[in-house]
Amino acid sequence: MKKVLLATPTLDGKLDVWYTISLVDTLRHPSSVDYEIVPVFFSYDSLIQRARNSALKLALENDFDYLFFIDSDVEWNPDDFYKLLEHNEDIVGGALVKKNFQVESYTIKLVEQKLKFNDNLSLIEVDGVGTGFLKISKRALQTLWEISPEYINDDETFRMVFNVGIDDDGTMISEDFVMCKKWRGIGEKVWVDPKINCNHVGPIKYFANFEEFLEKNDFK
Description:
Spore Coat Polysaccharide Biosynthesis Protein SpsA, Chain A; 10-stranded mixed sheet
């Protein structure tokens, strides 16, 4: 049975109701019998990169097969959770729609702004994807740990896998995109399943249709 650490950072210690419903439905899903799923919440940490690094260390130290990040303001289909687990790729996620009234956009960076598919045309290769709904394999966790610098926090040793950084064009990039850049920098690939849609919950619910978005914007 595969072990999955389902990790959710939550700065204020709260979970959205739509997240909670999705989590309960995921744990009750028929496919759950094939996995040992352990939800863990990283609360009250003002540094998101530190919370994610703590999750990574916990997954490695307890021999989890996968680390699955889901943000506390995300609603997802439980079928899609297990779909990502079944993908063989080491780092693969769903594109999370951003909370923006004016422009529809998603937490991904396409490679050269083009669609590059895997062999069976089920996944899109990306430069980076957010950790709102993201699976990372044990192999990727171990590799990223080994190539990242050490730091000490409360007398414990961690690795700075996740950290804010500066991209090649001088812009600041978030901790999840830094992790993706590090992974791609050693010749590995990051993938997104375009058929997975996760809603983003704020004052309103931001509904997603990533496939339709790709078609409208004519990425080729």
